[in-house]
Amino acid sequence: MSEAADNLAPIEAKAGYHHGDLHQQLINAVHTLVEEKGADGFSVAEAARKAGVSSAAPYRHFKDKDAILRAAVLDAMEKMRAAMEAVMAPHPVGSPEAVNALGQHYIDFARERPGMFRLMFGITRSEESDCAVADKGSEVFGIVIKAVADYMGISADDPEARRRAYILWTVVHGHSWLTIDGKADQQKIDFPEPELLQAVSKGVLGRPTSASDH
Amino acid sequence: MSEAADNLAPIEAKAGYHHGDLHQQLINAVHTLVEEKGADGFSVAEAARKAGVSSAAPYRHFKDKDAILRAAVLDAMEKMRAAMEAVMAPHPVGSPEAVNALGQHYIDFARERPGMFRLMFGITRSEESDCAVADKGSEVFGIVIKAVADYMGISADDPEARRRAYILWTVVHGHSWLTIDGKADQQKIDFPEPELLQAVSKGVLGRPTSASDH
DNA sequence: AAACAATGTTATAGATACTTACTTCAATCC
DNA sequence: GGATTGAAGTAAGTATCTATAACATTGTTT
Hints:
Two copies of one chain form a homodimer. By secondary structure, the first copy, chain A, is mostly helical. Chain A has helices spanning 22-36, 44-51, 65-88, 96-112, 114-121, 131-152, 159-180, 183-186, 193-205. Chain A is elongated. The two termini of chain A are 24 Å apart. The interface between A and B is large, with 41 and 41 residues. Chain B binds a DNA duplex (30 and 30 nucleotides) through helix 2.
């Protein structure tokens, strides 16, 4: 879990007249503000202030507020995709650890960056069916499907792999929401995440049938 | 609150100078607007317009915007609690049907009223730890725990009942979110909900051990 | 009936989102 | 090297929303 230093890079005011990197700095500002003020508390004006420019400047780089948010979401999803590949790497292909590592990372992401998590999933926007975001989502889900298929010893094309992977997704997604909303705490859920993940993957995926025993 | 025929009762403008039922009508307006404009698109001004009063009138009944939203959420949660008792009723105590009916109702609620669902869970607000809402949540979750305990043939006080119930909650909660966000469709999930629920309750709860045979 | 409480109204201050018209910078062309 | 050109930024204007204050109307209590 690198602290995502890249994403939350320090925001520095422009050097000269031309900012030079306002586009990325605005995306960084979204990442910061969305954690500070909540996913729905973000404002373009404040992002501009944070980047040290006027409130109208962002509109030179993005069509509107929504475009900024979507760019930030896409940015975050790409980082998540890369991170999920990374957390898988140390574990043997088809091992339960590989599957659980994916789930744990998803949950960790939500807990560490609840504002961005809410933005990625909770906000209604993107009526215009943002294909880039949807495609990036498919990449991420594809990783999960493959891990599940490997674990179960079946093809990733087997419809059953997609179904089982989806069940796992609902669990970690639901748990992430309930955690950042404080509902899990309110209901006094005492369920260490590793145990939760293990219980679910065992119950839903069965025992590993993978031949690969690296 | 028994006075309000239904949550989504028609909103009628006031009769005379004094509205007579503005409190409940504003709550009804939240229910409507939150579906029309999205959970984050709600405004007090528009709710007031919908109820046929000036934009300042709502502040006679609620401290601020947040209080209106929380009142609407509490209203919805109480309805949900009642509905969950109701959908359980036709099924034998401890039957898998009873458990699945709860999950199905939760999902149906999210699909039918995604705006309210987002409001109930997705919005950051209520920093002031709204106890009324938390308590109502406990009531609802208590129903699930009891259904699970009956199904497993254990006591509702058994910590294991709470854990298993929580897993079910994560699944239906996560599935609800992924459905209303369109993620399930995007990822081409072809998984009829009854089958999803059955697969999960079987995998997570095991076979029924209840004495009551249907 | 008069005072009071509750619940409306209008008016207004302060934020914010977004747009438009105008200004400044800096790289390129002649 | 100076004028041109277009990108980057500023300032100002419109619209909407939250929330408060001061005033108006109705119903209730004494």
